[in-house]
Amino acid sequence: MITAVDTNVLLDVLGGDPTFGQASARALRLAIRQGQLLACEVVWAEVAASFPSAAAARNALRLLGLAFGPLTVESALEAGFAWRAYRASGSPGTRVAADFLIGAHAFSHADRLLTRDRGFYRTCFKRLVILDPSKVP
Question: What is the pTM of this model?
């Protein structure tokens, strides 16, 4: 089982978030026991911004067991189509393309996405399986 991981879950754990940190850590442990953790370059970049150096970010992500999985042409195009549909539906323009890249990458390269941002991904990527950290015992 391959679990793509969203930025918010990683930052919960790496930053010791008092509200979401424990649930996100439990969900990551479950996902690791069930298979591989994967994230695209967008997630790696967003997480890296919280570290003083590339080496520190790389070390932290590797300690979590997170593999780097780049976007493919197909997943990038899927992200563009999903973003266009979202904007055309009259949804507020508050979502950036990065969220669509993460969702399309998860759909194309993983069995599910571990994220706290459930509603957005369920709306824009209806066939994407979502693992909600708050639902992991």
Answer: 0.92
